[in-house]
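Hello Y.,

Per our agreement to keep a running log of every chain we model this quarter, I'm adding this entry. I've kept the format consistent with earlier entries: sequence first, then predicted structure.
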Amino acid sequence: RVIRRILAHVHTINSVALNDDCTVLITASYDNTVKFWDLRASNREPIQTLSDFKDAVTSVITTENGIIASSVDGYVRVYDLRSGRLHSDDLKDPVTCVRLTEDGKAYLATCLQGTIRLVDLKSGQLLKEYVGHKHSSFKLEAALESGDCRVLTADEDGSILHWSILATDGQPLYRTPGAHFKAGSSVSCHPSKELFLTASYDGTAKLWESKSSESSES
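Predicted structure for the entry above:
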């Protein structure tokens, strides 16, 4: 049952996150804002609104000191909420998803035009690029498998692709064609086991076991 309803945004909500103790809800929207909500309070107004975005905010994640948000305007914005600082990285292409590495030192940005970028969180330096998948129209996601050893996405053809995080040529190690019959919409990896979950615009979600070897395509 619904225990609370918040009329949060004037447009579609693309992403939500919670702080460590689950007392603050963070929402990112197509209305170009990120808002913070105190779940303990009866007040229905946000406790903070971030309006630095020039286009839709596609994803938001929490960090030790703040949040990271991606946008269709091509920027990934890193907010240190303790110090009030904002650092913006211009990735040139619309960004549909951002994920943090396990050590918290870099983030993975899924960009339109078929590029996934690994970026140093502190400096904004581009560390790696991963290509070879189709991403031109839909909001796709990429994720890091347990231990940050491989990058994973489900692309617009419905294929699942895996890259070594250390890939020098940016090309995938292997792919699973036809995993879904429509574009992938979401991907999430188990924090400790070699399992991952994919969701698709075909209306299905599927649980997979990662390949133990990094050999040929299947």
